[in-house]
Design a protein that fits this description.
The protein is α+β, with helices and mostly antiparallel strands and 95 residues long. It has one domain. It is built from two helices and four strands; from the N terminus they run E-H-E-E-H-E. A four-stranded antiparallel β-sheet has the order 1-2-3-4.
Length: 95
């Protein structure tokens, strides 16, 4: 079970089509109509800085308005331990 102590939040949406497609490609995520919420934070177990990907963008919007709120592990779609390499010519998705 992963617990993320979040520090910053961002939302990727299909409104920024090129950037969104590149992010999904680099992070090995399927494109979804509502986009993804991204939480930069610390994995409470490993102490490492990670980016948690959340498909429920509305939940992320509520979370940002609720200081001290935590993210249940079932809300986390994927955890990125490194930022994806967004260069389509890269040999690997992760640099």
């Amino acid at each position: 079970m992963q617990h993320i102590e979040w520090r910053r939040a961002a939302i990727t949406t299909s409104m920024t089509t090129d950037a969104y497609q590149e992010f999904c490609w680099g992070a090995q995520l399927s494109e979804v109509a509502g986009g993804y919420g991204l939480l930069l934070g610390y994995d409470a177990v490993s102490g490492e800085l990670v980016t948690a990907v959340i498909e429920d963008v509305e939940y992320l919007r509520l979370l940002v308005q609720s200081p001290g709120a935590t993210v249940p592990h079932e809300k986390i779609t994927k955890v990125l331990t490194d930022w994806p390499n967004l260069d389509p010519a890269a040999e690997s998705v992760w640099s």
